[in-house]
Each structure stands twice: as structure tokens, then as C-alpha cells.
Amino acid sequence: MPIAEPLDPARARRIAVVRLHVNGQAYAVAAPTHWTLLELLRYQLGLVGSKQGCDKGDCGACTVLLDGLPTLSCITLALSAEGRHVETVEGLGVGGEPHPLQRQFAERGAAQCGFCTPGMLMSSAHYLDELGRAASPVVRQQDIAAALGGNLCRCTGYTKIFEAVQAAADETCDRARALADGPGGAA
Amino acid sequence: MLRLPVFDVAAPDKLTDALRSLADSQAGARPLGGGTDLLPNVKLGQTRMAMALLLRGVGELRGIERRGDNLWLGAGNTLAQVAQDEQVRDALPALAHAASRVASPQIRNMATLGGNLCLDTRCRYINQSEFWRQALGGCLKSHGSECHVVPGGQGCVAALSSDTAPALIAYDATVEIASWRDEGVQTREVPLAELYDSDGTRHVRLESTELLVGVRAPVPGLNVRVGHRKWAVRKSIDFPLISVALRLELDGALAAGGKLVVGVLGPRPRVLDLKAFAGRALAPDFARDLGQLAFDRCRPLPNVPYDAEYRRERLPVEVRRLALSLFGDQAAQS
Ligand SMILES: Cc1cc2nc3c(=O)[nH]c(=O)nc-3n(C[C@H](O)[C@H](O)[C@H](O)COP(=O)(O)OP(=O)(O)OC[C@H]3O[C@@H](n4cnc5c(N)ncnc54)[C@H](O)[C@@H]3O)c2cc1C
Ligand code: SF4
Ligand code: FES
Ligand code: FES
Asked: Which of A124, A134, A135, B50 is the most buried (most CB within 10 A)?
């Protein structure tokens, strides 16, 4: 559902084509040069999972992964994503199955109004990525709090969110250990 | 929703192209590092620009390397890179600390060192929406004639909230500046402390055609200790309400000099010389006296949020704690 920006000739040169990957798929998207990445995702690609909260960098509701790093799409120009890889909350689950984080958030009541949830999930997904890459992963409360330090929630008081991330992180560690122990499993 | 006004974008990948764009644009172009300061300010109608010059692709602005006795850091490094870099953590730990305490994880992934040093000044009036500001009319920084922080004040006293600036000044850092003139690249280098002016409406002494290319900091020897400390209401996201750096030069076990750099007072960090403390032992009473010096010489204003009197009382406490953390075991023993 592209938004109707006036395309008068005087402004035509201010429309650019952005080539980027979103959730693994390649796109070439026409967007006004002053659009943010969040606007491109929501209004040009219809990916409305990423939320427009404060729209100025304070809340984290618009968090996406840009080349793997948590990034605020509300203060990133669409053109800054040229040639790069974007992951949004829509890309978290695989084949209709929710991501372990999404399952834990749902089971543990980590979302109330849900407005912060997509951003929380993307920051947490990055935390799990890092954990999965660690040589000997250890789940620490303070690391979870630090990883979510740029995401505000008005509803939950954070406790349920931390619990959900902790549970998904424990699963990640178990999987990493099982892999390290090989197909025979732990002795 | 805060929409951006219409502007053009240029994304050069060479320094010369970036400098030429700036020179050609007749002050309409704005360098954009991470955009984490510039874009919110443009959204709030506080800054105007005809063109955003994306610096991300400019290779000459990247990299962190040892150059002789100095560590050189490109202006385009992100704060996350600065905070995590092994060389920075080893040689300039107070800078790594300052960078790690800026804003939030997302912002540190985006924000650049150059942008942090060229950060616009902030105050509780100017950093509001245009609609909000209309209620009081303009100010010295926004098409008006009075300051809403210091009524009757003749100058803008909005604060520089950069966390890395005090740390880098404590390391005696200099900044490398480049521009395109006479068909060539012109460069100059100035001490970081001299980059800043006391006028909050133009506190960064850069021409509109100039770019900050990098920062050079002499790696301190064993007789120098530098630390940084920040206080904000929340541990994350918040701008600093106090951001201080302390450089202690030692002669054996005693102080020989150094400097205390206090940020978030006004448009430029305040640098206090510590020569008068030469000969002092690294003991708690010395830490208290450093706190007292800060209390006597610095007067936090109601420019940033929070009670200014409280900030004033809090400053010596932060300075004392910072000093004690640098004294280490010596203070604990005495
Ligand atoms: C919610 C929030 C919290 C924040 N908290 C903090 C905090 O705790 N501490 C802190 O210090 N800052 C904080 N900031 C401000 C900002 O995010 C950081 O200062 C950041 O480092 C700015 O870097 P940037 O690359 O994003 O700057 P940009 O927005 O890209 O640029 C800032 C200014 O510098 C100019 N500029 C950028 N690069 C260059 C260059 N190479 N040469 C010349 N000029 C240049 C730009 O034109 C602009 O005027 C916060 C911001 C937000 C939104
Ligand atoms: S401190 Fe500066 S920006 Fe703030 S109201 Fe006064 S003149 Fe305006
Ligand atoms: S919407 Fe981007 S940080 Fe709030
Ligand atoms: S669940 Fe409502 S803001 Fe977090």
C-alpha cells in the first residue's frame, strides 16, 4: 500500500530507488529521498510490524536489524539502507512457526498492549544471535537488561519480558551445548 | 508521527567527493554520520537542511590505528566500534567507557564518533517540537531574541551533552579537519578543547564546508591515569546530566598535575587545570578537594532537564567518586 506522495516534476529528482534485502528477499523500492527506513518498510512494503512510536530515537519500537545490528529505523534514512540487509519482526518466524522468542513472549505474558513487542523481539533476537556465537554461552540477567536497554515498555514493568528472553536464551544455550556434544548427545 | 521535510541525499564514497559536495552546496548540505542527532533535530524543526551528505560510505573516515605514539580514530567509526575496540580499551579506556555509556545499544550501533563530537547543543526549550516552542516564541537559537533558560541572558547557554568530548579532551586529543578549497583538499588540526565556542548557537568551530576526519589522541604513559564518569536518571537511553573526565599525572606515588574536564554545563566543556594539586597523595582528602574544586568553579544551569541545584550538589560527589576510582588501591590503603 504505497502512500501517495505528490510526484510533481520539481520533486521527481527527490525520488530514489533503494535496493535492499528485507527478510532475505531482494527489493528495489522507489522512495522519496527524505523518507526513513521505517516509512519505506511500513508504507512501501506494507511491513507494519515495526512500530512508529516516538519517531525520534527514544523508544526502540521501530528497532530492526540492519546488517545484523539493532538499529532505529525511524531515524535511519531509507537511502542509508542501500545495498544492505534488513530484518524485521515479520522475518523472525520460519514457515509459519513462531520464533522461540515469540513463543516465550506469548506463553509468559510478555506483551500487553504489544506496541513495544516487535522492537523488544528484534533486540532480543540479536542478543540470542550473539549468545549462539559465543564459545561458552552463559545467560546473565544483566546482559539481557543491557541488550534491551534501548527499548521502552509502558505496560509490563519488564519482568515478564526478561523472563521470556531468559527462557528463549536458555533454549539457545541448550541447543548450542547439544550441538557441541555431537549427535551422540551428552555423556 | 514526525515526518522529515523534503531534502536531497548524497552518498559519496570518497572524501574528496564528500568535501566537494559540501563546498558546492553553499551551506545547504549537512554531514550525516549516524543521523541520531541530526534527524531528530530536523524532525523537530530545530535544524534545516537542503541535502543530507551520508558519510557512511567514505572509507577515509573509518579505522582505528596506532600511529606512532598516538591512537588515530576515524570520525566515521560507530560508538559501538569505539567502545568495543581492543586498542581503544587498552590505550584510552576512559574513551571506551564514555562511548559505551552514550544513549542505547541501537543508537551506539548507528552513532559516529564525529557526530558525537559535533553534537548540537541542547536545552529544555529548544529540544521540543516546533508546536510546543511556538507557545513561548523563538529564542536566540531559533529566530527569537530572548533565552528561555536564562531570562534576559545575552548568549545561548544550551549544553553540549557529548560523553566522548570530555574523555577525549582529558586525553589531550586533537581533531583533523578537512575541506575542499582551491581545487584541493585543505587540512588543519586543532586541539579538541579549542573546537568548541561558548556560544550555543554555533558552538562547533567548523565552517559549513569542513568535515571532521579523525581524532588523534596521544597514548598516555604509565604515569598518567584517565577516567570518565556519567550520571543520568536512567542507566540507559538518557543524555548525561553530568559527564566528567579526570586526567591525573603522577610523579611516583604523588600527583603532579592533570586536568578535570566537566561536560553538560554549557556549550563547551570546562577544563580545570590541576597543577595546584602537585605533591598531593592519592588519598580520600585529595578526592574530596577535587570535588570541591568542581563545586566552586562550575555552576550547572537549568538548561538540561533536572534541578540545577541538585546537579550542582551532585557534581562534587561524581568527581570524588571518579577520583577514588582512579586512585585505586592507594586510596583504600590510606
Ligand atoms: C534518545 C537519545 C539519547 C541520546 N543519548 C546521548 C548520550 O547519552 N550521550 C551523548 O553524547 N549523546 C546522546 N545522544 C545524541 C547522539 O545520539 C549522539 O551524540 C551521537 O553520537 C551522534 O552521532 P551521529 O553520528 O548520530 O551524529 P549525526 O546526527 O549524524 O550528526 C550530529 C551533528 O554532527 C555533524 N557531523 C556528523 N559527522 C560529522 C563530521 N564527520 N564532520 C563534521 N560534522 C559532522 C552533523 O552535521 C550534525 O550537525 C542521544 C540521542 C538520542 C536520540
Ligand atoms: S539556552 Fe539557547 S537554545 Fe535554549 S532557550 Fe536559551 S537561547 Fe534558546
Ligand atoms: S519509533 Fe524509533 S525509537 Fe521510537
Ligand atoms: S506491552 Fe505495551 S508498551 Fe510494552
From this structure: A124
| pLDDT at B267 > cutoff 50 | yes
ipTM of the complex: 0.96
Q: Where are the beta strands (DSSP E) in chain B?
A: 8-10, 29-32, 51-54, 64-67, 70-74, 174-181, 184-191, 211-218, 224-231, 242-251, 254-262, 270-273
Quote the CA–CA distance of B243 and B131 in Å, as a whole number: 31
Residues of B in contact with A70 (CB under 8 A): 105-106, 109
What tens digit of pLDDT does each residue of B105-159 get?
999 999 999 999 999 999 999 999 989 999 998 999 998 999 999 988 889 999 9
Whether residue B256 is found in the same domain as residue B173? no
Mean pLDDT by 10 residues, chain A (187 residues): 46 82 97 97 98 97 98 98 98 94 98 98 97 92 97 97 98 85 61
Interfacial B residues in 289-308 facing A (CB < 8 Å)? none
CB contact at 8 A, B101 and B230: yes
Phi/psi for B292 (5° steps) reads -65, -40
Rounded to a whole number of angstroms, the distance from the CA of A128 to the nearest CA of chain B is 15
Gap between the Cα atoms of A84 and A64, Å rounded: 12
Domains and CATH numbers, chain A: 16-91 (3.10.20.30), 92-179 (1.10.150.120)
Ligand 2 pocket: which of B154, B303, B304 to mutate (most atoms <8 Å of CB)? B303
Residue B263 sits at φ, ψ, to 5 deg, of -95, 180
**Residue that terminates a domain, selected from B187, B218, B249:** B218
Give the total residue count for chain A: 187
